[in-house]
Amino acid sequence: MKFIVPSLLFIFLATTTFAQPTTTDQLNAYLQKTANKGWSGSVLVASQGKILLENGFGDADRDAKRKQTAETIFSIGSVTKQFTAAAIMKLVEAGKLSTDDALGKYFKEAPADKAGITLHQLLTHTAGFPGAIGDDYDNLNAEQFAKLAFQTPLNAKPGEVYDYSNVGYSLLGIIVERVSGMGYEAFLREKLWLPAGMKRTGYLAPGFKKEELAVGYRNGERWGTALDHPWLPDGPGWHLRANGGVLSTVGDMHRWYLALRNGVVLKKELVDRMWSPLVAEGPEGHSHYGYGWVVQQAEGRRIIWHNGGNSVYNAIMAFDPASDLCMVISSNSNDWISDDISLQIMSILDGKGEQEMPQQEPWENNPVTNAIHRVLVEKGAAHFTENSQAVLRNAGFDFENDMQLLGVGKRLEEAEKWAEGESLFEVYTKLFPKIVIAWNRLGICRKAIGDLPGAKVAWEQSVKLRPSGNPAVGWLKKLP
Known about the structure:
The strands form four sheets. This protein has an eight-stranded antiparallel β-sheet with strand order 2-1-14-13-12-11-10-9, sandwiched between helices. A hairpin with a 2-residue loop joins strand 11 and strand 12. It is α+β, with helices and mostly antiparallel strands. Helix 3 runs parallel beside helix 7, helix 12 (367-379) runs antiparallel to helix 13 (381-395) and helix 17 packs antiparallel against helix 18. It has helices at residues 8-15, 24-36, 80-93, 112-115, 119-123, 142-151, 166-180, 184-193, 250-261, 268-274, 338-349, 367-379, 381-395, 403-414, 418-431, 436-448, 452-465, 472-478, and strands at 41-47, 50-57, 59-61, 66-67, 74-75, 216-218, 221-224, 247-248, 279-280, 288-289, 294-298, 301-309, 314-320, 325-331. It folds into two domains: 1-360, DD-peptidase/beta-lactamase superfamily (Beta-lactamase); 367-467, Tetratricopeptide repeat domain (Serine Threonine Protein Phosphatase 5, Tetratricopeptide repeat, Alpha Horseshoe), CATH 1.25.40.10. 41% of the residues lie in helices and 13% in strands. Mean pLDDT is 90; it is low at 3-21. The protein is globular and about 65 Å long.
């Protein structure tokens, strides 16, 4: 997932001059105070060739009381996409492909409406593919994923609309494998990561141990680490591979920034292409997407960044090559977003101290949930079921953020609109089939409208996903 980053960050970046001396003690004091309030993660801040801070804060594992350190392994989420873009550019550098190439050149099975999509369109999220077509842990191999992607209708005609898509980047990763003759991770490790000095980045190749990873927490509940969830023998399935989920450290990610900036892994003109504002992300043109990076101009400064997460952990990487400023921040809980930490760090660097942050919109009552809720209430369950994809897209739904659907469902249940709730949770479980609470709420809605067999099916699926500590176990026993 890529989050929408508040423009405040880039106001800070644009006005930051570092004229006032900033000490590591000031940054440490703020981050430690924030950790005392419940945040945990790792942070690296570097400027003008000097690392100002590289440390961990809070717990990497709350149960084991294991502390975060600068070496704690975390998921970088959708920051992975710029690695895939760099792999494509590495193949461009070797003369093995062009960004003008069409999908049909690498997928003979591509149908007519998709065969002409170019690699440039995939790289800039203008190919027309939807945001996602399955769960991260539905472990399809490359062939199965490509088949599903080609069967899925496009959201828009290729080249017409910016529409952020994990699907396109997974297809790019498959192309990397087909052109190079190497596995995706093996190619990146040999051609990019190791030349950059990155030994602690990848999926499986670094040989991570679970106790080295930050444990993720979702709404206060232990979610586990990436290695606690099912992957294929050679890494994550292709709903996740190449578009997200790479594991790394803040130090390795800073080494990557230096390798790009200094031309270690790619020629300067190719890096410049990745860092160019190629496609506007919205009609206002406040930000643009390059190849795997967001590019923003603010007060004459070019800020390059990307973030990502999976509604459990999240990370952000942002830098200004002109001033050599670089930040990498992780969080292992969805209660604290790395983007917010970055805003405060920039304010401290600018000598302004901590700033009062804008109030976050409540997860159950915001423009997206309001729009979805309004359609369900005004047009009914049958209309939503039949037109769910269009309704969600028109509402601005983030197809990787199930919390938005949970917020709508909560409001429907509180109003005892059970039929509408059933429709909502049926769509929810199709989009996010591994979310236990969605199956539980679907069962509750079905029971409320008298569909006891349907409630049983939903709760049995919930228990299958989480056999212990699940209220659905008791609910099933009470069914007649």
